[in-house]
Amino acid sequence: MPSPEIIERFLRGEELPLAVDHIAAELEQLWQALPAERMPTRDYHLNLLVQMSNPALIDQTTATLREFAQIHPCRVLLLVLNLHSEQEELSASVTALLAQKEGGQVARCEQIMLLASGGVSVARAVALALPLVSAELPVAYWFVQGIPAETPLLTRLRNQMPRLMFDSFMTEDLGITLARAHTLFESTPQLGDLNWQRLAPWRAILEEALAKPECKHLEKISFILGGEILDENHIGQPVLLMSWLAQRLEWELVETLDYVRGTFRAVWEKDGREIVAEIKNTNTQAQELNALELTTDFAGQQTVLTFARVDSGTSSALQIVLAHETCKQDLPALEMHELLRQEFERKTDAKYYQETLELATKLI
User: Fold this and answer.
1) What percent of the chain has pLDDT over 90?
2) Distances from the Cα of 121 to the Cαs of 95, 99, 127, 143, 151, in angstroms?
3) What is the sign, positive or negative, of the torsion defined by CA atoms of 151, 153, 159, 160?
4) Does the pLDDT at position 313 exceed 80?
5) pTM: predicted TM-score of the whole model, two decimal places
6) Hey, which bits of the chain come out as E strands?
7) Structure confidence at residue 333 (pLDDT)
């Protein structure tokens, strides 16, 4: 039985190790050992499976899950699966998030983490994870670093129709992630990209700009990302926006995305006119989309419309410049837990996303 010290640590929300061969049994012993007067109510609304490969993201992800669980109490299964490690390693732990409410404590989140390195350990972790998923609760699956090529646990959970969430902004392989998402759409209608939610303000502002007469004949569009290095796996934002524009404006793809002299470049065509799209970077700290430039032919003259992200303290805005006119619009910045909650609570289809995704897979 757990010692009084272990029980106190559990009630304080500290991470406790579990024997990998006895996860369920040790966890139940832990709950049963709690004093009756301090026994929290467990009323979870769902199983939330969270998968990633980089252990450096554990603290950040756990903080996100704690915020999410304040609104949606859940049983979290955090899978840190490093398939390509040469060293075999497997461990398990549990952390509880308890909150004080009228009438006593309530468990907002029960997080079981499986940390596996190496092919054999990852396969074993997947086998251990399946029995820990409650058949009585709905299932949501969040891929933190994009969707990997192989998803054996997701395949085994297919009968439970999990809600699938991923983020094309931070991926290990953007091409694989977008291709897998496109394939999964056929069998997983409840699929959502947190990056699509993140880009909503950009799409709204672009819709408004494209309605202007000056933007009728677009010749070139430039996306400027932050960061010292232009990483092909971190260009999900411009790839989605570019594909969305092409879908909305009925462009035809002429040349797929290629890396030329420090810039990613693609060519589209509309009514015999060529539209060049390029992705560049600027040496700033934030790796998100920093600016966007539209070059158009208006009344025989080249006109440039610039959208530049301006950060000040805790808020962000888009500074929009056309000729000598300048204006600003708020650019809401959602925290990761807010994006996760927004996507989880979404009731309608993500408008245009499936068509955008199909184009994006052809683009890269």
Assistant:
1) 63
2) 22, 34, 10, 19, 15
3) negative
4) no
5) 0.91
6) 16-18, 41-42, 46-52, 74-82, 89-101, 104-117, 139-143, 163-166, 191-193, 218-226, 252-260, 263-270, 273-282, 289-298, 301-312, 315-322, 325-330
7) 73
